[in-house]
Write a structure and sequence with these properties.
alpha+beta; 4 domains; 10-stranded mixed β-sheet; 14% strand; ABC3 transporter permease C-terminal domain-containing protein
């Protein structure tokens, strides 16, 4: 019995579903592509995340070599004092202690022909001859303690004679650096190795180093030695095994939340589109389903057939999506590599793991089957008698009301907006609030997009032209056709609304980030002149900060009343994770206050100000104590304020410059703000700075120039987002075409009937085109209106994931542009089936009536 039932199910699947897929291969391909677009974005995001993580880990392992243990201080930059080095060497079981300085260096290539120079970022290492896995043993002769300066052969071949290595002390000519072929394997050749003593001077480490790599004595156990080191050095030092990659700033802390938001959008769009296409497919085969049911097919077998068809299309779409994701991951990874080079000196190649391909295919299958459940249930509940007697279409027209569905979806979407807003009113400092905000954003996106489709259909239904106007016959027939099948009308309107909403949402979000960055920069400069030795957005991670002599010259310039410094300090928290301190002589706080007293009051009371993401991840509250520094220099400070800051992904700590130097020692400034003296303008001071000779390049701009530079540099973060933006828009526009082409296939018989009643081919073509314009305009209008609510939900999700409170921006120009483009796409999509309809013979299409 069971075997017979299974055979019947397979037979039904072959006749109704798979035969339809073969017969309408083009339609099936469109459905698969609609789903594949969402899979492509997800795959591209996974490739980017994997590539960045793998590159950073690989460089860490290359530096570690065979050393099984690593010692890191409270600050990742200069966190190990000479006393700690000696204490480490004295621990039983320790073989050798290898001190290492690891920095991010800039190599400036001015060009032989006097043209514009280029700047590249890479890894700067300071080592002695004990690091034999980095330094060729042949380089260090007997009794030699340090190797000569060297760069990789591939890097040396790409430079000319004017190339310099920019450091915290000035610039070093790399002309006499050794070219070492073995270094080509380290960080893809973007590496420079300095003698340890030289690195301490050039990278402003004083007598300190960044980390210690520890090898073991014969027969020593790594776990036992690790425990002895922890006991000897104390809790403010971290002793990490080789299996734990060396920590460094991960740009995914900033990029991943933003990319994640885009991935969620793509998934939501994919689910909506595959649902629409599957529903239209079911409607097209109602009569076949009724016949099969009358012959004994069970509702379960009918449902299984459509779910299997969806799985087949999902597999095909996933395959296309995976291949597309691999292609679009190239520019995304390239953008991430540019950022990673600046923050940790690591270049990022594309890494494609087989697991990503598997996850992409499975995701597509699950999305397709999940999206098809609703239409499949509808197919299994097909009224047999009504469908076979020809009453189904009339019953659907007279009885099916979509107001309830539209209002229900609208309520669901708005509830998502409300949930996201309520969860973030206090900054989402608790884990469950963050989860609620993200879920609310997804619910808002899907609910409101679907509501847009049904509201558009209902609005079109409400338009009833006056019957006595003979000139409007074409429009009247088009409107009647749209009213006769509201499900089809909703599908067209929804397909138009998707690209419009996506365009408005993403454009507004990116514009809001740009506005926020500009406001932060203006607040930081606060009417002062901003000065840097690198690029204004790169002052923190790059070891090319202000040398003491440069600071002294700036302070002594005529027209400068005073200078105020800003520095970045990367630190390790108690659990080994990283955070980033911003130290300022005159702190500025252009961020939203979430908890505690004002930031200024906290700074005056020697309390720290922290970002909301850091507070949530570490479960920190106002009044909690954080310990900064190592050994005798360690200092406990309480948390006075929590702010919504996007800097370093919300993992930011603010403290006065003087306190930072007490804890971590002298810190070279990355930015300097100069206040013009009375009687001098900013322009005069900038001109004076430009005319002064410094040992390192110095750039000065006024407040407006600084804001412009910061806003422009934010574009580096937004490049991968813009790539995904246009990818999503392309997917949405192609889905418009696919939906309308499928609708055109469904209504051939309807068009044939109009022709049989005397309509000319021109009239038929006009009717079909007008339907697309009317439905598209309604979808675009409702989509633009509801996109405001969707933007609010996504804006709230940004508070959780990025720690950023952005203004609610509605980009009117983009809204109009993409509404027009979407409508044009709708007309274009309608032209093809309209033209095909005029080529068909009414008798052929109506022979079954």
């Amino acid at each position: 019995m069971a075997r017979g039932t299974l055979a019947a199910t397979f037979g039904l699947l072959r006749i109704i579903n798979f035969r339809a897929v073969r017969k309408h291969a083009f339609r099936a391909a469109l459905a698969a592509f609609s789903l594949g677009g969402g899979v492509a974005v997800v795959v591209a995001v996974m490739i980017e995340v994997t590539s960045v993580s793998k590159a950073v880990e690989d460089v860490g392992y290359q530096i570690a070599g065979p050393a099984p243990l690593r010692v890191v201080g409270a600050a990742t930059r200069g966190g190990i004092s000479p006393a700690v080095v000696e204490d480490t060497r004295s621990v039983a079981g320790v073989g050798a202690v290898v001190p290492v300085i690891r920095g991010v260096t800039m190599i400036r290539n001015d060009g032989d022909s006097g043209g514009k120079g280029t700047e590249s970022y890479g890894l700067g290492l300071g080592v002695d001859c004990s690091a034999q896995w980095i330094v060729d043993p042949k380089v260090c002769q007997a009794g030699q303690q340090e190797p000569p300066p060297a760069i990789s052969k591939s890097l040396g071949d790409s430079l000319d004679a004017s190339a310099t290595l920019v450091t915290d002390a000035g610039q070093l000519s790399v002309g006499k650096f050794q070219r070492v072929a073995d270094l080509d394997e380290v960080n893809n050749g973007l590496v420079a190795v300095l003698p340890l003593s030289m690195a301490k001077v050039q990278f402003a480490r004083g007598d300190r180093v960044d980390m210690l790599y520890v090898t073991l004595a014969p027969d020593a156990d790594a776990g036992e030695v690790q425990q002895r080191l922890k006991t000897t050095l104390g809790p403010t030092y971290s002793v990490q095994p080789r299996s734990e990659p060396a920590k460094g700033y991960n740009v995914n802390d900033v990029l991943l939340p933003l990319l994640g938001i885009f991935a969620l959008i793509s998934i939501g769009v994919g689910v909506i589109l595959i649902t629409q296409i599957t529903r239209l497919s079911v409607e097209e085969r109602r009569r076949e389903i009724a016949i099969a049911s009358a012959l004994g097919a069970s509702p379960a077998s009918i449902m299984t057939g459509f779910l299997s068809e969806a799985a087949l299309l999902g597999a095909a779409g996933s395959a296309m999506g995976v291949l597309t994701g691999i292609v679009i991951s190239e520019p995304i990874v390239a953008s991430a590599s540019e950022l990673t080079e600046r923050f940790v000196g690591v270049t990022v190649p594309v890494v494609l793991k087989p697991a990503i391909l598997v996850v992409g295919v499975l995701a597509g299958l699950l999305l397709a089957v999940g999206a098809a459940i609703g239409p499949a249930l509808s197919a299994s509940n097909t009224p047999i008698a009504a469908e076979l007697s020809g009453r189904a279409a009339q019953e659907q027209t007279t009885q099916r009301k979509i107001w309830f569905r539209a209002l229900l979806l609208l309520a669901i979407g708005l509830s998502g907006v409300i949930a996201a807003r309520l969860a973030t009113l206090s900054g989402a400092l608790v884990a469950w609030q963050a989860i609620l905000a993200d879920v609310g954003a997804v619910v808002a996106l899907i609910g409101l997009l679907l509501a847009t489709a049904y509201l558009s259909a209902q609005a079109i239904t409400s338009v009833r032209p006056r019957p006595d106007k003979s000139r409007g016959a074409t429009l009247t027939i088009a409107l009647n056709a749209l009213r006769s099948d509201r499900s089809r009308t909703a599908a067209i309107s929804g397909a138009i609304a998707v690209p419009v909403v996506v365009a408005i949402l993403l454009s507004g979000f990116l514009v809001a980030i740009h506005i926020g960055a500009t406001r932060v920069a203006e607040s930081q400069a606060d009417g002062r002149i901003a000065i840097t030795t690198t690029q204004f957005a790169d002052y923190g991670p790059v070891d090319a900060r202000f040398a003491p002599q440069t600071v002294n010259k700036l302070n002594a310039l005529t027209g400068v009343e005073k200078i105020e410094r800003m520095a970045e300090i990367e630190i390790s928290l108690k659990d080994g994770s990283l955070a980033h301190i911003q130290a300022q002589d005159r702190p500025t706080f252009p961020f939203g206050l979430l908890a505690g007293q004002s930031p200024e009051a906290s700074q005056k009371a020697n309390q720290v100000v922290i970002g909301s993401v850091l507070a949530r991840e570490k479960k920190l509250h106002i009044g909690d104590i954080l310990v900064f520094g190592s050994g005798l220099d360690a200092q406990a400070m309480s948390i006075g304020t929590i702010v919504a800051t996007p800097e370093y992904g919300g993992r930011r700590i603010y403290m006065p410059y003087s306190i930072a130097e007490q804890i971590y020692g002298p810190q070279p400034a990355g930015l300097i703000f100069a206040t013009p003296a009375a009687g001098f303008t900013a322009g005069q001071v900038i001109e004076s700075i430009g005319a002064t000779q410094f040992d390192q390049p110095v750039t000065a701009v006024d407040t407006d120039g600084y804001a412009s530079e910061i806003a422009t540099s934010i574009g580096r973060y937004l490049t991968p987002l813009n790539t995904l933006k246009y990818g999503l828009l392309g997917i949405a526009f192609i889905s418009v075409l696919s939906t309308l082409l499928l609708v055109g296939i469904r209504r051939r018989r309807e068009v044939a009937l109009i022709q049989a009643l005397g309509a000319t081919r021109v009239r038929v073509f006009s009717i079909t085109t007008i339907e697309a314009v009317v439905a598209g305009a309604a979808g675009g209008l409702f989509g633009a209106v509801l996109s405001i609510a969707i933007s609010e939900a996504v804006r709230r999700a940004a508070v959780v994931n990025v720690g950023l409170i952005t203004p609610l921006v509605f980009p009117w120009s983009d809204a109009v542009l993409y509404a027009v483009l979407a409508t044009v796409a709708a007309v274009f999509a309608a032209v093809i089936p309209a033209w095909k309809s005029t080529r068909s013979t009414p008798a052929t299409e109506l022979r079954d009536e």
